[in-house]
Design goal:
The structure is a homodimer. By secondary structure, the first copy, chain A, is mainly α. Chain A folds into two domains: 143 residues, no CATH class; 341 residues, Neurolysin, domain 3. Chain A contains 21 helices and three strands. A three-stranded mixed β-sheet of chain A has the order 1-3-2, sandwiched between helices. At the A-B interface, helix 1, helix 2 and strand 1 of A face helix 1, helix 2 and strand 1 of B.
């Protein structure tokens, strides 16, 4: 048996543990009885530790070493690359620091919830201060070339640096002017459907119907309900999504469903020959988000999709909305203090703000205590509004309480990349007619062929270059906004 | 750290793997997309292998050895005893034989399904022959004192032997006379409610309502639907049950729900101090079945329960049935060829027959090819009926195709023990009034105190003696039938 083969055989244990952890993750947000959260936490923690101990065992490290020498094609090199990344995390960061992070974030999550409820940043501040310290230490252990924040970005988006992020966000700055133009042009900011109630059972049936049209594979996929929509790729042959129901404003439920469909298609699209290997699955959060955003923004927020969906909205929700109504309703532009409610045009400003603050925290140019004010000032600068309190400002996202710093930029990577993918796809496919006729198979095939099937064989930048023949380009997004919102 | 403590720490990995396997088991019968069965199988197999490798590692074996010397109380001795039993299985049976069994049973399951569909024993016969050979080999590896079947019985019911089983079933033989008497006395054999349709949604609500009354803990438990009802103790704080819905004959759904409630109560009742140890959980299949049968037979098939449930049947199913109607309907006595449809009186004959055949197969006094005829002859002898074909005869149960031989007798152990428990409980509690008033907390407490909290600390025979002050006693069951069906 060659070293790569032997490595993959040993890796099967890690795969199986990951599989079970994914199922546990899905279950804990859908069907798990509430009272068993603590026990679930203990079981997960034990399995995570077991996985780590296999990955960092001498046997495994040796196999990676030998496989690296033997790797003779892109897939084998990809396998070694992905494992090296995982090992870097476990071997460079001292285990005490990881434990400390787990301890602190467990408490921080609770403190954050409390702080958000009371709109009191002070309750969360000491925890966040400790988290920032830990993250800075981790960055030092992980190592970086130019900026400590690079080390953290790389955890979520391989090879993505402060230099890249600065280029991305400065390229998005012209959206300020576009936003001004759109707002002053009389583009709709509100729509009665935002307040129109719906029947949750029928809404669920509508979501299921739309998923069927998009090409959801019932044999390997399912839709459930959870507090926040998510996708869980339990295995290549078991990819589940969830959505939410608020009883009004059906767009939120429908677009979340389509968004998660995009994630799930990526998880399902990996070439079966990569099954159970470390390269089966999305390559980065940014590329993953590009898939969900492509379906949510480029497809579901298009005029063609509005005409496809209008009769279904009538059939299922008994709402008399024309395709134009739906297009307008899906594409309102209204600066808001809340990221998750932001439209396409304002969304990236929310991310820009978070990126600048995170970078400042990690490089030490901003202190945690200055965050609320800095947040509000940037909000005013980018969107012209000031959050009424910290709950709707600096406390709105859970991410920092979980220790996720370097994560936010991937949302903008995905949002921009989604548009580039759409533009590229339109060179090969007549999207408006395919979408309005509900013919999504050529679109799925295009994505599978160019992106999905490769799993994590290539690092994200290389994958994008191979798929699109270009790099991440914020200008494409600005142009898209210019044309669409005219 | 003492050896026991160290052992338990190491055992946490095994516990966590078992936890995840249980969740996977539950999920695969409830929500898993159908197409992912093969992947699920691979993940389970990898986790089972990982669990085995931890249990049989030198480190673990050494810890068990040291813990055995140090064990200083019943719980610690119980922990060592239970682990020794698990290790016996993994260390005495050659791994090649276990693999062979897995391979054969995987194919046998499919062959059995096909054979049952066609009512053709020949299709299944070669597989069953191989399974019997494997089981006989396993028995030799496991070792036994008097009879090779003892080794197999012990896997499901610790310490239970052919001698015990012979005593049990010969003690149940007087039921033949009772059955004759009951049938000739005009005791009802049929009831119109068997054919009365119900609305599945309302039936589910009725089940949930009954579970609430019985004391189902929503915080740690849930009810779902599956092809066959089962209980999955994922962890001490996460015990899930399922039931089924056929659209008519509501008794089947209701009694299955109550049956599984009994299993789940046992799983939930283990003393929290035993959490995550090898002794947390039911001690044997027989004792487990005694808990489900107690609730199903002793409680739900009682006159008191009929009067409790009659108004609910009216409220939820819109059926106008008096308590007497329901009591009759729940206690029809009608010899049937199908075990899972059998009533209290005829049930044990189904088990007796299987026990005698299994014992014969293992000791070599019966050959597989003789099974269909032997089955039908015993059916005629015990119940006076002959299956119309092998699908309703020798092919009706899945157990043998899974390699489960020595399992069936635990059903009778549970059925008999349930009555002994009920009798004993009536010395302390006024069951009829508690049940008719829906006051189940003293009943739950009694079971918890006497049986549940001990988990597997004591072997089943000792547990029964401690709880009831007596041994398994078929006469108690015969007497119960004599009185109830008069």
């Amino acid at each position: 048996m060659g070293a790569v083969e032997e490595l993959l055989k040993e890796y099967e244990k890690v795969w199986a543990i990951g599989y079970s952890l994914a199922l546990m993750g899905w279950d804990s947000e859908t069907y798990m009885p509430e009272g068993s959260a603590r026990e679930r936490g203990e079981a997960s923690a034990a399995l995570v530790a077991l996985k780590q101990s296999i990955l960092t065992s001498e046997k495994f490290l040796d196999l990676v070493e030998r496989a690296e020498e033997e790797a003779s094609d892109d897939v084998e090199r990809g396998i070694v690359r992905v494992l090296r990344r995982a090992l870097k995390y476990y071997t460079r960061i001292p285990v005490e620091l990881l434990r400390e992070e787990e301890r602190v974030t467990n408490e921080a999550k609770i403190a954050w919830r409390k702080a958000k409820k009371r709109a009191d940043f002070g309750t969360f501040r000491p925890y966040l201060e400790r988290i920032v310290e830990i993250k800075r230490e981790e960055a030092e252990h992980l190592g970086y070339e130019n900026h400590p924040y690079d080390a953290l970005l790389d955890l979520y988006e391989e090879g993505f640096t402060v230099k890249d992020a600065d280029r991305l966000f400065s390229g998005l700055k012209p959206l300020t002017k576009e936003l001004e133009r759109i707002l002053s042009s009389g583009w709709p900011q509100e729509h009665p459907l935002e307040e129109t109630p719906y029947d949750a059972v029928r809404m669920r049936e509508l979501n299921e119907r739309i998923l069927d049209i998009l090409g959801f594979e019932r044999e390997y996929q399912r839709l459930d309900t959870s507090a926040h929509p998510f996708t869980e790729g339990i295995g290549l042959y078991d990819v589940r999504i969830t959505t939410w129901y608020h009883g009004k404003d059906f767009r939120r439920s429908l677009l979340a469903t389509v968004h998660e469909f995009g994630h799930s298609l990526y998880e399902r699209g990996c070439d079966p020959s990569l099954w159970k290997t470390p390269v089966c699955g999305g390559v980065s959060l940014g590329v993953h988000e590009s898939q969900s955003r492509f379906w949510e923004n480029y497809i579901a927020r298009s005029r063609a999709f509005s005409s496809l969906v209008a009769p279904l909205v009538r059939e299922y929700l008994n709402l008399d909305a024309s395709p134009d109504d739906i297009f307008t309703y899906f594409n309102l532009v209204r600066p808001s203090t809340i990221r998750v409610e932001a439209d396409e045009v304002t969304y990236n400003f929310h991310i820009m703000l978070r990126y600048e603050l995170e970078k400042g925290l990690i490089e030490g140019s901003i202190e945690v205590k200055e965050l609320p004010q800095a947040w509000n000032e940037k909000m005013e600068e980018y969107l012209g509004i000031t959050p009424p309190n910290d709950a709707e400002g600096v406390l709105q996202d859970i991410h920092w309480s979980l220790g996720a710093m370097g994560y936010f930029p991937t949302y903008s990577i995905g949002t921009v990349l989604a548009v580039q993918i759409g533009r590229k796809m339109e060179e090969d496919l007549d999207l408006p007619s395919l979408v309005s006729e509900g013919k999504f198979s050529p679109i799925r095939e295009w994505l599978r062929e160019k992106i999905h099937r490769w799993g994590s064989v290539y690092p994200p930048k290389e994958l994008v270059r191979r798929a699109l023949g270009e790099d991440l380009d914020p200008k494409a997004f600005v142009d898209y906004v210019k044309v669409k919102y005219r």
